[in-house]
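Work Package 4 report. The design task specified in the project plan requires that, given a folded chain encoded as structure tokens, an amino acid be chosen for each position. We show below one input record used in the internal validation round.
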């Protein structure tokens, strides 16, 4: 037998003999037994340290992410001599039930705006827990900042109300802030283009009656959706509850009975707003208000002492040669003030960065100096906000019958772009 085995066996025998001796002595002496029991209970060092059982606990769950309150981005006060960019980009997170049009309406943006800002995301089935970029920052169009300015490329309206003091319209003084309101719009589809140029509001009406033209009725009939010659006020009226009549015959600014179609080229040339937005604009605008319609897919403005660019898609029926004549066309987009300030600072346009942003428009204002990489920086820096209607918004969050029209909007999108995703 190996030495180690004999040693181990002898040690075991010695331990057993010692245990038996202790037990015999305790059986003869009860006092000794009591002392030994006390030692066991007290964990006395004579017997060695007392070993506590190890209880494994589950790791604490990670803390819930915290989100800031969302910001309403429809009313701003600007310094008209220096401010060209308003609002802030936000990022929110989807719930299981959300569609992108749901989020768009909560944040007062349109269908095309939110889809463009989130490439690769299914508008109708984005999935739960997905971060969604909310494009609520805007470069103001190159147009006089008075009355109503509509940029059909951006599908957005800007309203600059008059400066009123003691009931009278007075010019802004140096240092005065100018107010601007902005909302998403729907515009004329291909073949029914919204006209560009200058006109004015010549009338207002609540609960309007719609009398579609013969051409509109004929189109509906050809599509298997005949409509009557007169549609009175009510939920079936495409004009919604409010309309502004323009100096251009047959063209209106109005509400809609299908809110989820705002932000699309879906009208017969009129300008559509969400019901909650047209109600506010209707209450502020008076007859005689100037209206300017521009088509500016690429916008430039100063922000944080840098020149920013905001790129939208060029409309399908825009006949300008943006591919070969982009530099000349963009030069016309720059305001005289921007050109003057660039000259004073010795700056020149970075056409390489402009081309890159124009080729993949996201509709987010980006510092030209940062180029395309600036888009990621804008999204990374954007506040993460709760997915709810912001305080101070025009909408109260009530859905009324709007959700039931989402299917109609999906069909509109599908007719416009057969490659768009279905749900």
């Amino acid at each position: 037998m190996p030495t180690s085995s004999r040693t181990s066996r002898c040690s075991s025998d010695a331990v057993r003999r010692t245990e038996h001796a202790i037990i015999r002595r305790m059986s003869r002496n009860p006092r000794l037994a009591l002392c030994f029991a006390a030692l066991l209970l007290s964990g006395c060092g004579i017997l060695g340290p007392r070993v506590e059982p190890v209880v494994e606990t589950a790791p604490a769950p990670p803390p819930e992410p915290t989100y800031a309150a969302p910001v309403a981005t429809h009313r701003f006060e600007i310094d008209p001599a220096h401010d060209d960019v308003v609002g802030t980009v936000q990022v929110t997170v989807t719930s299981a039930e959300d569609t992108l049009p749901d989020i768009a309406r909560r944040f007062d943006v349109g269908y095309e705006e939110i889809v463009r800002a989130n490439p690769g995301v299914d508008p109708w089935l984005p999935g739960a827990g997905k971060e969604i970029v909310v494009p609520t920052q805007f470069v103001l169009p190159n147009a006089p900042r008075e009355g109503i300015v509509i940029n059909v490329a951006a599908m957005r309206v800007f309203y600059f109300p008059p400066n009123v003091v003691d009931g009278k319209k007075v010019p802004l003084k140096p240092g005065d802030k100018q107010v601007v309101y902005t909302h998403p719009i729907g515009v004329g589809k291909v073949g029914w283009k919204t006209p560009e140029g200058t006109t004015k509001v010549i009338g207002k009406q609540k609960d309007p009656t719609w009398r579609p033209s013969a051409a509109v009725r004929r189109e509906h009939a050809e599509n298997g959706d005949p409509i009557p010659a007169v549609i009175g006020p009510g939920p079936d009226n495409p004009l919604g509850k409010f309309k502004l009549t323009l100096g251009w015959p047959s063209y209106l600014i109005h509400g809609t009975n299908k809110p989820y179609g705002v932000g699309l080229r879906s009208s017969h040339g009129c300008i559509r707003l969400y019901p909650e937005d047209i109600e506010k604009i209707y209450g502020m605008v008076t007859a005689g208000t100037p209206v300017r319609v521009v088509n500016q897919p690429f916008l430039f403005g100063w922000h944080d002492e840098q020149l920013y660019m905001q790129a939208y898609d060029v409309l399908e029926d825009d006949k300008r040669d943006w591919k070969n004549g982009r530099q000349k066309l963009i030069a016309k987009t720059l305001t005289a003030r921007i050109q003057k300030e660039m000259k004073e600072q010795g700056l020149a346009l970075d056409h390489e960065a402009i081309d890159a942003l124009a080729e993949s428009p996201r509709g987010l204002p980006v510092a030209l100096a940062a180029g395309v990489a600036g888009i990621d920086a804008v999204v990374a820096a954007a506040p993460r906000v709760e997915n709810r209607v912001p305080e101070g918004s025009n909408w109260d969050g009530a859905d009324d019958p709007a959700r039931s029209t989402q299917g109609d909007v999906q069909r509109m999108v599908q007719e416009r772009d057969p490659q768009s995703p279905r749900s």
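The first strand starts at residue 75 and ends at 78. Validation will be extended to a larger panel in the next phase.
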